[in-house]
Write a structure and sequence with these properties.
Order of helices and strands: HHHHHHHHHHHHHH
Strand content: under 5%
Structural class: mainly alpha
Number of strands: 0
Number of helices: 14
Shape: globular
């Protein structure tokens, strides 16, 4: 059952990436960086905002809201704040911008490497020991990403290089968040879902702050973009697929461990490819499938045995 749930988490996030791409194509009237940034901020705000509201409601109904709130301390709150910045403006926003520019398939290839970034940061900052298997995983991951990216660039897709740059920022943000979330988790007995809700609350606030500054900077253009983004079906699809993927991912980690859970979650690049074909967005080449398999094995080997690398941005 844990394996099935893990596969579902990857499938839902792959669907989310594709829906995000469809949303950007239908909602954006301009491919200018400013318009894409506003779109990414609005979608990130909706996804994190609705998700954390749902978690808080769950704890309220369960009667554990006050208990978890009382256990919140400075020593685990501030790592979550920094994690929220890494996962939010640096991770989620640039990830969505990467999808808008490069498409869900090639942007997903880069962002799926967050476990390897987390491992490298752990080896550097936390002095985690690098085993031969982990080193092999890092090498395979780098090779997989390199060849898939080359294939993407050769495809001639417009703005793909810009998209890959944004996706790389998201990969770095989610990798750093994994470490910070792990540090916060070790200092408390609170539910992981509560910590996730705090992280998402802070990231939602950061989106609001940035959007407020953009409105002050250029009200007309910012509001013009926002007014074009009310597409109810796509909003519901993006929010539900993202929230459901969060829940499935955590259940998978609980049942089969972080190594397999993370690997199945990272399989969203396959599902993004499948849904992209189904939605007539792009064609998946054989070389993509081959190097994606290499990439998945690399992620598995790199994350094997590291139970504290639990990604919460997805």
């Amino acid at each position: 059952m844990g394996i099935i749930i893990g596969i579902i988490s990857g499938m839902l996030w792959g669907l989310n990436d594709v829906l995000t791409n469809v949303y950007s194509e239908q909602g954006l009237f301009s491919s200018a960086t400013f318009a894409v940034l506003v779109f990414a901020l609005v979608l990130s705000l909706m996804q994190d905002g609705f998700s954390c509201a749902g978690i808080y409601t769950y704890h309220h109904v369960r009667g554990s809201f006050k208990e978890n709130l009382a256990k919140t301390r400075h020593k685990n709150f501030w790592p979550l704040v920094v994690a929220a910045i890494c996962a939010g403006p640096l991770g989620m926003v640039t990830g969505i911008m990467g999808i808008a520019y490069a498409g869900p398939v090639y942007a997903g290839v880069v962002t799926s490497c967050y476990p390897v970034v987390a491992l490298l940061l752990a080896m550097t900052l936390l002095r985690e020991k690098a085993t031969k298997l982990k080193i092999l995983g890092i090498v395979l991951t780098v090779i997989g990403v390199m060849f898939i990216s080359i294939t993407g660039v050769r495809s001639g897709a417009e703005h793909i290089v810009i998209g890959l740059i944004f996706a790389s920022c998201a990969m770095l943000g989610w990798g750093a968040e994994s470490i910070l979330f792990s540090i916060a988790q070790k200092t408390t007995t609170q539910d992981v879902s509560w910590l996730l809700a705090i992280r998402q609350s802070v990231s939602s606030l950061s989106y609001l702050v940035i959007l407020s500054f953009l409105l002050l900077f250029d009200y007309q253009q910012t509001w013009q973009v926002i007014s074009q983004l009310f597409l109810p079906l796509l909003i519901v699809g993006c929010v539900l697929s993202a929230s459901s993927s969060y829940l499935a991912y955590y259940h998978a980690i609980k049942r089969i461990g972080a190594s397999l859970g993370t690997t199945f979650n990272a399989s969203f690049i396959f599902w993004a490819g499948i849904f992209s074909v189904m939605f007539n967005i792009t064609e998946v080449q054989r070389s993509f499938i081959l190097w994606s398999i290499v990439l998945i094995f690399g992620i598995y080997f790199a994350s094997k045995g590291n139970k504290n690398f639990a990604q919460v941005a997805c």
